[in-house]
Amino acid sequence: MQALRSTVLALLCFGAMTTALAKKEMAQAAVQPRQLSLVRVNVTGQGFDYFRPWQKRAPFSKRALGAVLSQGRVLVTADLVANQNYVELERAESGEKTAASVDVVDYEANLALLEPQDKKFLDGLPPLELANDTTVGDRLSALQLEPTGALVVTEGLVTAIQVTRYPAEVGQFLTYRLSIPLQYRDNSYTVPLVKNNKLAGLLLRYDPRSQLMDAIPIPIIAHFLRDAANPTYQGFPSIGFTYFPTRDPQLRKYSGENGNGGGVYVTGIEPGAAVQKVGLQVGDIVTGIGNFDLDQNGNYVDPLYKKIDFTNLLTVRGYSGDKMLLKIHRQGKPIELAVALEHRAADDYVIPPYSRDEAPKYYILGGLIFQELSRQYLREWGTNWLKDAPQRFVYLDRFQWELFPEGHRRIVILSQTLPVNGTIGYDDVGYLTVTKVNGKEISSLDDLAEAAKQPINGFFKIETVEDPKQIELDVTQVQADEPRLRESYGIPTLQRLK
Hints:
The protein is of the alpha+beta class. It is built from 13 helices and 28 strands. The strands form 5 sheets. Strands 21, 22, 23, 24, 25, 26, 27 and 28 form an 8-stranded antiparallel sheet that branches. The longest helix is centred in the N-terminal third of the chain and has 28 residues, at about 1-30. The radius of gyration is 28 Å and the shape is flat. It starts with a helix and ends with a strand.
């Protein structure tokens, strides 16, 4: 009897091991590396130092996996190639390498297309098709490579499809949420996700503690690729207004709404936005977009994803130049507005939300460093910049449209003071908002440079919103301090305006 029990136990253990091995082999078999057409992407570069805007940071190197697509291009994330000096493609199976250029990049959608210098480099790698039918409950495989070139396949479950903010923090985009035990590899900067050997998405961010991944989904990628096929890349349309749910009965009553209809309450409109041009107003309730009605939370019923935020209709389903119908209620009366969708470029913001691959502007006057406020500057305080950066600057960034409805300007700041003879007594002065220089209004760094050419009675007079409100610099002393500034702080030029 004991021998029989041992035999049965051994058979059960063998069966369990066989089942586990079979599942592993099936997962590996479901992903064929030759068919998946992946290449390594090696990037070197240098970011810019916004605290010392005349210099760059230490060089960096990144490795990733790129997905081979049609027309001899490779898809990666924009974060991978930001501030790049050199991009190289590498065949995983042979180690063959070639230089590559960034063909199209969209920092808002975090996507980029690379093109190899050697047009025959991707020969033999069939382009990946796109899996555009992913829904909640599907399983996707994350692909990585070991240093030896061996393929690592990690399976994850799609637990949610929702609209979230991407790293550039401009608008909101469709996102897949996966539960997946992803492990770090040296090529983990861009991780492709596949479904039935078709590209299903790219890694956006990953939390190893919760083992939750956000991924850039195929609808975003397909939108990007279609736009990239045009002679001029337009970018994703901007929504152009802020909103609030209408669950509150008092808000609905205040807005002239009766009953329990849907829609979102318009709380603000960006100056110059497409919706402003057609007459959308604060206080309007947007009840529908195109053929889709909105509920009180701002969701619509998508044919594939079911309930999802209405911004998906504007950013993913629409393209710049398309006409889209907005159904609104204004004090209870239905109105329809035909909006021509537009993309708002980073340069159109009062405080630009990102400025990758571009050296920051600056102007140094007698040890005082002047810059234009940007979110890239605020990010120098790290991932917790919303709390750690100077709060008056965070406030200006958050409410820039309300504070500066005229637009078409920049916020010039005195970011810090370098100790020289002419700045004695101003050592701790910094993080000030500049309003005037030599009596002239300042709305850009170019304005400041021009005003600095006309000192008043031998002095530069700088006026600021915050204390000390006014700073005076002796022109003669400023000129005398310039050689020391260059030598002591390694500053090649005291201004960069382009």
